[in-house]
Amino acid sequence: MNLTLKVWRQNGPDDAGRMVTYKVEDVSPDMSFLEMLDVLNERLILEGDDPIAFDHDCREGICGMCGMVINGVAHGEQRATTTCQLHMRHFEDGATVTIEPWRAAPFPVVKDLVVDRSAFDRIIQAGGFVSVPAGSAPDAHSVPVRKEDADAAFDAATCIGCGACVAACPNGSASLFTAAKITHLSLLPQGQPERLSRAKAMVDQMDAEGFGGCTNTGECTAVCPKGIPLETIARMNADYLKANAK
Amino acid sequence: MNYTEGPEIRDTKAPAGPIEERWEKRKFSAKLVNPANKRKLTVIVVGTGLAGGSAAATLGELGYNVKSFCYQDTPRRAHSIAAQGGINAAKNYRGDGDSIYRLFYDTVKGGDFRARESNVYRLAQVSVNIIDQAVAQGVPFAREYGGLLDTRSFGGAQVSRTFYARGQTGQQLLLGAYQALERQIAAGTVTMHTRHEMLDLIVADGRARGIIVRDMVTGEIERHLADAVVLATGGYGNVFFLSTNAKGCNTTAIWRAHERGAYFANPCYTQIHPTCIPVSGEYQSKLTLMSESLRNDGRVWVPLRKNDTRAPGDIPEDERDYYLERIYPAFGNLVPRDIASRAAKNVCDEGRGVGPGGLGVYLDFRDAINRLGRDAVEKKYGNLFEMYERITGENPYEVPMRIYPAVHYTMGGLWVDYDLQSTIPGLFVIGEANFSDHGANRLGASALMQGLADGYFVLPTTLGDYLAAGPFGDVDDAAIAEAEIKVRSKIERLLSVNGTRTPDSFHRELGKLMWDYCGMERTEESLRKALERIPELRAEFWQNVKVSGTAEELNQVLERAGRVADFFDLAELMCLDALVRTESCGGHFRAESQDADGEALRDDENFAHVSAWEWGDNGPILHKETLEYEYVKMTQRSYK
Ligand SMILES: Cc1cc2nc3c(=O)[nH]c(=O)nc-3n(C[C@H](O)[C@H](O)[C@H](O)COP(=O)(O)OP(=O)(O)OC[C@H]3O[C@@H](n4cnc5c(N)ncnc54)[C@H](O)[C@@H]3O)c2cc1C
Ligand code: SF4
Ligand code: FES
């Protein structure tokens, strides 16, 4: 199949950036979206052009490193799918596809489709952990966990930190990501001692990074490749309120 | 390629005495560093996977001044995140007869008697603490309704000792280590350098004292100094281009340390996983693993006739060859990884493979669906079927899956002693980057165990013993400058070729060559061919590669070109190592060394040793470390 790509090119954080049009031919429906870009990049290199920079690593939908806005939707229109797991068979021959980076003030563009998501790490640094030094842990069976709790904690813990939720949110809120982390630990007995201080510190850090507030539009869960549910945000807010009331 | 033999390695630093007491003994003899002095000692940890992440967090917590590096945008994305199946531990929570000794025994045997007993025993001992540590951190392992941890059994073991978090065990364990690491970053004990690639090791006065890195965003070349350097940079399976590894996995850090004097051990041991989704076209960039558990119900077959292009449903029963069931009537579709992989290769080599390029075999659920019903199959394997459909566009409930073996894990790596120290004092190597513990094969769920054992429990003790003699004073300027110049000139050289082929096109060609000549089956002839072809291709690379852009910017072409250049050198050593080892063991199958039934034939008389290669200006130098089996008796494996 043949496609017309409109790709956001930006040399660096200070460059204004612009859309550039490329034609790609002989795209196989079995290619992943990133492989289609690989093929275009091979051509650009040989033509002496700068290939399109994009982030990726595992290409298995688990590391969270890939991510671009495809036809206006973070990770593309296919639900619950990362960009690396999106395949070209979902596009029509002759179609025009626009490709842009995550857009949010706390995620500055590094180059082309690569953005800086280190704000997420700083949210974790604020308290997204259980303080337990290596070597001092009690036997794993000493604290039983209800299976339902363990499963729900797991569901929240599957967030891959890709940032699609931020890119999709009209307010540029990082609530879904932060709530996923908070929910994971707050559902487990191990997370209880630091539960409220954690929620407070992480939410405050999220605000300090310049992410917008949550107005419950739900765009985040719609694009989340791991299907993190909106309830996590309610849980986060409840813990945050409790922490502040103390 | 010429090589010479050097003196045997005699001292591995493993304490003598009863095996169950050796680690205790070593811990007690290790010197301690006084807390006030820890702050004055700097440790560099390269890599933030399970090994590096857990090590950096623990060392930071102990009070050392730690500098951590990774090439991704955040430490949470290291390749360990992709591990699916689980992690072993000798907890014996099931009371099914598991013990530290049994885990030790299974691992040594599974490694085809090419691992060091002392290390493996310690691994089994420490495995117990790993689970405790992870659970305390909030890793959401699967649980039973009673609230206790669930386990499952995995290949190569008859007990249920594998702890898991759905199909995402690696992710959850890595997030645990990452969170511990971020906590230390917040506490100021660890400084994190993401998007930084280590390009050389600084060795001064015979000790590892720092690294040269490239800031992958600005292109700036930086020097970082320390009292010790830890490499936790993962495996090198990407030398084959197509593998189950993440795209960025590479050999650069360990290879450049090798050039500086660290021995490279058993480079030829590569684990091939039998059930991956096959290659579908020339553009393909990676291979995806399908869980081995599918072979519990799926039946593997190919058409009897060569080049049979009929749709699978049109091929009648008597024209199908269920070759695993035919050749291995006792184990059938459940033979171990190396056996299943080779059998698939053989039928494809005969021209009976299916799918594009004839490199695939069917994994058919028709009988299972007829027997159990579609619902039951869906319950058991639904997520895997969905993943398959997403990638291939085919519905495995209606047509059989196609699978093919793929490169998965490298058991070779830098040689380390019992303390995890390489042959360069002050250079420690942990996780998949070192050679230790697994032998010629790795059982499922044991790589995660090793990475975390090294990082949380072993290294923090043994490194302290080394550092007790520190701080080691100022680093010789000349040594730093020399390393920096070497890095810069390599980058300049890559940029100045300006040829007509991309780095990826060379990588693909090298990978194909390695797969064909040094893959699932090796022969003297194929290895000699590879050893002829690799230098030619490398020469072409240095004359004809095209690296666009400049050194002073985010330049992914330059990054790749540097890694491919190192893969050429490593590939050559892998083939040489495979050529010299004229026996078959684990992931190394030399066609000349098989028994009458076509099974791998070990040669314990001549090869019960680790091959540790030293970089020499006139070709590699082979040192042997003799492996002694005091506790597990060497026996031939059989699956018929
Ligand atoms: C698909 C898949 C499934 C698997 N499933 C299992 C399983 O179920 N159970 C099991 O036990 N094992 C499994 N494995 C194997 C296991 O995941 C790996 O062996 C293990 O995670 C390796 O961990 P590591 O910490 O040594 O290295 P990695 O996790 O690979 O980390 C390497 C680190 O080094 C950094 N790095 C590399 N080079 C440089 C450089 N030059 N400069 C700076 N940084 C650098 C990277 O940024 C990264 O942080 C699986 C592997 C794959 C591919
Ligand atoms: S919540 Fe979903 S979209 Fe947001 S970072 Fe996590 S996985 Fe990505
Ligand atoms: S590259 Fe890892 S999630 Fe897409």
TrEMBL record, chain A:
GO terms for molecular function: 2 iron, 2 sulfur cluster binding; 3 iron, 4 sulfur cluster binding; 4 iron, 4 sulfur cluster binding; electron transfer activity; metal ion binding; succinate dehydrogenase (quinone) activity. Its cofactor is [3Fe-4S] cluster; [2Fe-2S] cluster; [4Fe-4S] cluster. One of its GO terms (biological process) is respiratory electron transport chain. The keyword Nuclease does not apply. Its EC number is 1.3.5.1. Keywords: 2Fe-2S, 3Fe-4S, 4Fe-4S, Iron, Iron-sulfur, Metal-binding, Oxidoreductase, Tricarboxylic acid cycle. Pfam families: Fer2_3, Fer4_8. Binds 1 [3Fe-4S] cluster. Binds 1 [2Fe-2S] cluster. Residues 18-103 form the 2Fe-2S ferredoxin-type domain. Residues 150-179 form the 4Fe-4S ferredoxin-type domain. The keyword Iron-sulfur applies. InterPro entries: 2Fe-2S_ferredoxin-like_sf (IPR036010), 2Fe-2S_ferredoxin-type (IPR001041), 2Fe2S_fd_BS (IPR006058), 4Fe4S_Fe-S-bd (IPR017896), 4Fe4S_Fe_S_CS (IPR017900), Beta-grasp_dom_sf (IPR012675), Helical_ferredxn (IPR009051), SDH/FRD_Iron-Sulfur (IPR050573). It catalyses: a menaquinone + succinate = a menaquinol + fumarate. It comes from the Bacteria. Belongs to the succinate dehydrogenase/fumarate reductase iron-sulfur protein family. This is Fumarate reductase iron-sulfur subunit. The lineage of its organism: Bacteria, Bacillati, Actinomycetota, Actinomycetes, Streptosporangiales.
TrEMBL record, chain B:
Its EC number is 1.3.5.1. One of its GO terms (cellular component) is plasma membrane. GO terms for biological process: anaerobic respiration. It is found in: Cell membrane. Keywords: Cell membrane, Electron transport, FAD, Flavoprotein, Membrane, Oxidoreductase, Transport. One of its GO terms (molecular function) is steroid dehydrogenase activity, acting on the CH-CH group of donors. It is a peripheral membrane protein. Residues 43-448 form the FAD-dependent oxidoreductase 2 FAD-binding domain. Pfam families: FAD_binding_2 (PF00890), Succ_DH_flav_C (PF02910). Transmembrane segments: none annotated. It catalyses: a quinone + succinate = fumarate + a quinol. The active site is at R337 (proton acceptor). Residues 507-639 form the Fumarate reductase/succinate dehydrogenase flavoprotein-like C-terminal domain. Its cofactor is FAD. Belongs to the FAD-dependent oxidoreductase 2 family. FRD/SDH subfamily. PANTHER family: SUCCINATE DEHYDROGENASE 2 FLAVOPROTEIN SUBUNIT, SUCCINATE DEHYDROGENASE FLAVOPROTEIN SUBUNIT. This is succinate dehydrogenase. It comes from Nonomuraea polychroma.
